[in-house]
Design a protein that fits this description.
Radius of gyration: 33 Å
Structural class: alpha/beta
Strand content: 15-25%
Shape: globular
Strand order of the largest sheet: 20-21-19-23-25-18-26
Distance between the termini: 20 Å
Number of helices: 36
Oligomer: single chain
Length: about 900
Amino acid sequence: MTYNDKPINNQVLTVCFFEHGFRLDFNAVSNLKLDDDQVDFELDLYHRYLENHDKMLFFFGFDEAPEYLSESMKFLYSVSLQFLKRLALTADLEFKREKVMVSPTKDDIYFILGSVPYVIGMECIDERWIQSTYEKLSAVFSSEIADYDGPIDDYLSSYNSNLHVMGSVFFHLVEQDSNAYPFAFLATYSNGNMANEKSSHIPLKSALTEFEGENDKLLKLMSSVTQASQKSGFIAELVESGEIFSPLRFTADEAYTFLTEVELYETCGILSRIPDWWKTKKNAISIDIKVGDSQPSKVGLEALLSFEPSLYFDEEMLSEETLKSMLNETSGLSLINGKWVEVNHEQLSATLAAYEKAKALFENGKFTMAEAMRLQLNIADLLNIKNRDVNVGISHGEWLKLVTNKLKNPALIEQVALTSDFKAVLREYQEQGFNWLRYLNQLGFGACLADDMGLGKTVQVIALLESIRITSKGCSLLIIPASLMGNWQRELERFSPELKFEMIYNKFSEFDLLKPDQPDLYITTYGMVARLQQLSLKTWDLLVIDEAQAIKNPTTKQTKAVKAIRAKGRIALTGTPIENSLSDLWSLFDFLNSGLLGTSKEFKQFIRHLREHHSDYSKLKEVVNPFIMRRLKTDKSVIADLPDKIEMKAYTTLSKKQVVLYQALVKELTAKLEASQGIGRKGLVLSSIMKFKQICNHPDHYLRLNEYELKHSGKFLRLQEICETIYEKRERVLVFTQFREMTTPIANFLETIFKRSGLILHGGTPVKKRAGLVDEFCGEAYVPFMVLSLKAGGVGLNLTAANHVIHFDRWWNPAVENQATDRAFRIGQKKNVMVHKLITSGTIEEKIDLMIEEKNKLAGDIIASTGESWITEMDNDQLLKLFTLQQVGDV
């Protein structure tokens, strides 16, 4: 199976949402085997997307969603299906036709927001997004139905036999002031027409007069009622007696029968107008468990909170005796305190049993803070609730409500001014971030500062460290990637010069954790933690980890070593708190607030239950959101001075020497592939990929020569053209390459263009030297360029003096390239950032770039990647098609 002649072996097209639109992720899933029908479905969806985003989403809901869909895809499917259901339930749809505008109801909004999974882009889904999406889907429907001559019901049912437009007949049930007949019933019909989409509802009896002598029209009008009478004995009696045409009085039992059949009437095309209390009947009698009414004697997740269960009926407290007395009544409707409630013995018995179980727990003692907050996730298991209609809610008492409100709304937290020793001027959102971190730390809770890259996570943490230095004289530990050692050192010296810190670079570093005159902060790397067992012998006042995605895998030695370190407070910094797996979230919170999400086994059971039933993520968000602060740099209400970046591709051609080498390598690979298999074949493919990349850079890179003549490399020629313009404007540029050995040849070449030397930073650059290189590049003296290896320079460095970024060769991972670009595209940048991506035409670079382009368009900043290993899963024909040189002019 191919798409545009690109092999899609073991590929899955998954739709993700990002910001205010949709993007399709052409993502390799190596462990998922798709049959031809599944692949055809994915490709059809992909073609629809390319044609029209909104139209693709509109038709998506008509399909039957396959089980293997990603969480993102399932969410979009649920949005589409919810819209189509609301569309079908729209009154007088046939009369309104293309003029219809479907708006989401409160139930739609609640359902959709609760269904948003933990994936990239989840922050962008809100009520405005839902409203906008419904408007777009309404526009698609209007366009479709304008060209359709038949009835709308035929249109919808042709795509999905379960979708039917409501007919012209409506049933109405209202309460009335009568003991014997407390309800009134009336059937009406709409007198709208195609010329006038506005319609009124008149008693069904009037139809006998309006259509007198026109039996065909009367039968058509009554078709939905006829269908309902065939399924409902209750409606059949009303039709046979002719009472359906008259206003009726219903007893409570008759009203109950009617209400229980409302969904049946809808399947027949009859929309029923009923009392609101029936729509929420499952929530009428509920159990409320209030926790944290008073402030505990100590802080942290082990703090003991009060725990008190209560019974409620429609927000009014209900006694246990009243509930028991209801069990003695017959099933149906019962009037309690002037309000009607359904008497369902099975549901009431299950509610009573759960309440008695909750009372027993209350009598046994108090809950810890962790147990109390985790109740949102495991209350059904805790109370042994099997009946899904039992409604149990967790409410926060006075103290806990005050705390959680502050955590969710940092502006409510008391602001603390820093002393003059702190040299940074924090923006408003940074002040709120600092005070939020301080407040959580005082409470003994771990906090995840997940601000978007460039919003200043580092300076907010330094503000907290400075506050700790002034108030408690504590000793903190900071764990970071080795590449950020210089960055943190520079930031600390700049913003908090009075704060004393020591850096532990390697196992030979001299430090004494027991000496009386301790520094305020120790800094070490993830790689060192496992080798420095003494770090776990001390209880730190604060433990901070930067680039916290380093501990997303809970089984690694590195993660276990970090989590073994004892600390009174914990902070995790990351720009990507949620990646592609909820297990990553568990690992993060196992570090921050161990026990909050239960054990790994318990959390996996919760995820399985979540996906097997309705995917309602709201309870999980209720638990974790108070401990995560996430602000996006694209949000202009947070920061407005960060300019946009402009990306462009700079295509180059291979030189003659490159063409000869490239084609010879293809020929060599063709011969070797036939004789290789297994691990050997995989190694052959991966090594060949590297060689092709080297040839595309420069023949001397592949041949391991040191001449690097301009004429032999199309990329060098293109680089010259770009940089000559930069030189004329006296601007600065960052050049990224994934090959350390290419940094010096590129720097030497750029020196001939800029007429002065630049800087080089790669994995071999000493950590102590890196901060100096950054300072030099960003200083007043004009340093035109810096050449960086992608891994060493792609994270943490602040290089806003540059307003051009050139990716000399491609990493084939949009997230990694975006991180590198963001060294320049961040706070402090005053110019538009121009991003140039060099691509050699007709080569593997261009072919893979097409896939990268689809990733960027459709998946945004996707972090997870299988690198290049997925290419090894292709068969020989697909591989050779990928590698073969397609020269300019070839078809």
